[in-house]
Amino acid sequence: AFIGSDSNKSAELVEEVRALFDVPVLGGYGLVEAPMLTVADLSDSPSELACTDGKPATGVEVRLFRSDNTIVADDSEGELRVRAPQMMLGYVDSTHTAAAFDSDGFLRTGDVGCMDDRGNLRITGRGVQAEIKSSLT
Question: What is the pTM of this model?
Answer without folding.
Answer: 0.82
